[in-house]
Design a protein that fits this description.
By secondary structure, this protein is α/β, with parallel strands linked by helices. The chain folds into two domains: 221 residues, P-loop containing nucleotide triphosphate hydrolases (Rossmann fold, 3-Layer(aba) Sandwich); 70 residues, no CATH class. Helix content is 36%, strand content 22%. Strand 5 and strand 6 form a beta hairpin.
Length: 300
């Protein structure tokens, strides 16, 4: 059942966020997309206390959503909206204050080890052994996950060839490569272990346009070739439109609207007489523009 929400004025005091508008679930069919639940987030809540004299800040506020197996699900929101905190809760890096999260039926609090075996995470600043080569980084990660040495080497070579890294550069230190190439290696390292749920936390932030497009194309190939469900956070609306089957917008820690990119664009045009763009969607349900968001980030 759809629940209509009203946009929040930019200069208004932040009210209690309305319930999210939930639109029908549709996404591109993939052979492994059988309609089963890959990720269940049920009233997930996380609070932080900055200091003894300060009030608790609710970073994620009773967020509820479901992601199907094989789906690419995007999360948009302003800085401080709760996107990365939600990713960290799913990845077990943070613990819930209340609610529950399940990854393929495994509770992140009760079955942490089982969840860790099903997920892999790539953040905006991926961690590497930068003195080692891409090949050495991938083989090391594969061995950590128990892949046989021969299989690890062959799969690493195959993936690096797909990334366009010439054999002559397989032994070059990662620190000598561009940020775009480093990020592609990070994603390759994540899929090397065949994760069932891949968490991509702003994977293209800070990349030049060419590198960004290459990483996006690589993500598209992963979704077409690998049985992986993807949870993606991004500030890039064109990227969200290109990659995601469904989107959710978080505002002040609460999920305020959800649907496919086309459904959200149609909704903002029909209900608010605005251009049918994701920028209009973002402005309507967060009360700010992306430029406002970037300005706040620069002044922090």
């Amino acid at each position: 059942m759809a629940i209509t929400t009203e946009p929040r004025p930019v200069d208004a005091q932040a009210p209690v966020a309305p319930p999210p508008t939930v639109l029908p679930m549709t996404h591109t069919a993939r052979p492994w997309a059988d309609g089963s639940t890959a990720l269940l987030i049920d009233h997930a809540t996380k609070r932080f206390k900055p200091g003894r004299s300060k009030k608790c800040v609710t970073a994620v506020d009773a967020v509820t959503l479901t992601v199907e197996r094989g789906e690419v699900y995007g999360i948009l929101g302003a800085n401080g909206g709760g996107k990365s905190t939600l990713i960290r809760l799913v990845s077990t890096l943070l613990t819930l204050d209340s609610g529950r999260i399940e990854v393929f039926g495994h509770d992140v609090a009760k079955d942490e080890l089982a969840v860790k075996q099903l997920i892999n995470r790539v953040s905006v600043d991926a961690a590497f052994f930068k003195k080692l080569s891409p090949y050495e980084n991938l083989v090391y990660a594969a061995r950590l996950y128990g892949l046989p040495a021969g299989d690890a080497r062959r799969e690493a070579e195959r993936i690096l060839a797909r990334l366009g890294i010439a054999r002559s550069r397989l032994g070059s230190p990662l620190e000598q490569m561009s940020r775009g190439m480093q990020q592609k290696v990070a994603i390759a390292r994540a899929i090397l272990t065949s994760p069932t749920l891949l968490l991509l936390d702003e994977p293209t932030t800070g990349l030049d346009p060419r590198s960004k497009l290459e990483v996006q194309a690589f993500i598209e190939e992963i979704t077409a070739m690998h049985d992986a469900t993807i949870l993606l956070t991004t500030h890039d609306l064109a990227e969200a439109d290109r990659l995601c089957d469904r989107l959710a917008i978080l505002n002040d820690g609460r999920l305020v609207v959800e649907g496919t990119p086309d459904e959200l664009k149609h909704k903002v045009a029909a209900e608010h007489d605005l251009p049918a763009t994701l920028e209009s969607v973002f402005m309507t349900w967060t009360g700010r523009t992306l430029d406002d968001d970037l300005e706040i980030q620069e002044n922090d």
